[in-house]
Design brief:
By secondary structure, the chain is of the alpha/beta class. It has helices spanning about 15-25, 50-55, 75-90, 100-110, 120-130, 135-145, 145-150, 160-170, 200-215, 220-230, 245-250, 255-280, 300; strands at about 5-10, 30-35, 60, 95-100, 110-115, 180-185, 190-195, 285-290. It folds into two domains: about 5-110 and about 190-300, Rossmann fold; about 120-180, Orthogonal Bundle (Histone, subunit A). The chain is built from 13 helices and eight strands. The protein has a six-stranded parallel β-sheet, with helices on both faces. A two-stranded antiparallel sheet has the order 5-6. Strand 2 (about 30-35), helix 2 (about 50-55) and strand 3 form a beta-alpha-beta unit. It is globular and about 55 Å long. The chain starts with a strand and ends with a helix.
């Protein structure tokens, strides 16, 4: 293959992992995770991480290697991939990066903004105060301090609203003021095959619902129960994985199991819709693979 790497994106439950394995097998590649939830050791079932038998077909890297107590960032991920690409180059292996996290792909191909780290004492103090306020109140606070960022963020997006407030608290500057300066990503300027799986929306919705039922049968509730026992910060990414909040609400007696499952499916469907929107509007130059196209036909892909 003439490309230095293959990138495979698309909504959850669109068949990305199967395509990645097929291409890696055909071209002597290594499958590299590009999903921000599948990096966590605590969440194997509920994130539909590739099963051991799937990982045995071809080498898989950066899956389940991060503890749930860690707030794993896109910058940390890009650093991991940078080191891994150097390793694979020495082996002559083709990197096949697969996942649904658009920011991860942007970090690799376009780079990330140079935002200074928020001191831990600032973050701890801010989060203690923020815990007493609804997300809408925090968004209103952001609008008063940093109207430019407030206009960019959904009033219900608690994590990003808090991130913007933390940066303002730590630096006295808008998060937007840092976003124009970027360091190139490790794949910047390389010849890449970038594929976007774009099945019909109803097919994705049906697959999401069916897969959630399968995950429940595979032990997703036990997995979430073990995570709940760790009593981690509820704002950590691992605590917000799709399906986790609803199942914790069930374990806490706040929802029935049917309600928790319904919520998990609905959250995942909404996320898939956002993924489709992100890739269609934020990432140019990707080849959309419609239903019915043979993804292993190199003539069609290239």
């Amino acid at each position: 293959m003439k490309y230095s790497a293959v990138l495979i994106a698309g909504p959850t439950a669109s068949g990305k992992s199967a395509l990645a394995v097929a291409l890696a097998r055909r071209f002597g590649g290594v499958v590299i995770n590009a999903d921000s939830m599948q990096v966590y050791r605590d969440l194997e079932v509920i994130t539909a991480r590739p099963m051991p038998e799937e990982m045995g077909e071809v080498p898989h890297r950066l899956y389940g290697h991060i503890d749930g107590a860690v707030n794993h960032s896109a910058a940390a991920y890009a650093a991991e991939v940078t080191a891994l690409l150097q390793e694979l180059a020495g082996q002559g292996a083709l990197p096949v990066l697969v996942g649904g996290t658009g920011l991860y792909f942007k970090a690799l191909t376009e780079g990330l903004s140079e935002i200074p780290p928020v001191p831990e004492e600032v973050r701890t103090a801010f989060r203690a105060r923020a815990a007493e306020h609804e997300t809408g109140e925090l968004h209103a606070e952001l609008a008063g301090k940093d109207p430019e960022m407030a206009a960019r963020l959904r009033p219900s997006d608690r994590l990003r609203v808090m991130r913007a407030l933390e940066v303002f608290e730590a630096t006295g500057r808008s998060l937007a003021s840092f976003q124009g300066s970027r360091q190139p990503g490790p794949l910047a300027g390389q010849d890449l095959l970038k594929l976007f799986l774009a099945p019909e929306r109803e097919l994705v919705r049906a697959r999401i619902d069916a897969r959630f039922d399968v995950m429940m049968g595979q032990g997703a509730l036990d997995e979430v129960a073990a995570l709940r026992e760790r009593r981690l910060d509820p704002l950590l990414p691992v605590m917000r994985a799709h399906g986790v909040p609803g199942l914790i609400a069930y374990l806490d007696g706040r929802l029935s199991l049917d309600e928790a499952v319904t919520r998990g499916k609905a959250d995942t469907r909404a996320y898939a819709k956002r993924q489709m929107t992100w890739f269609r509007h934020q990432m140019e130059g990707w080849i959309a693979i419609p239903p019915g196209l043979d993804p292993l036909s190199i003539e069609q892909l290239e």
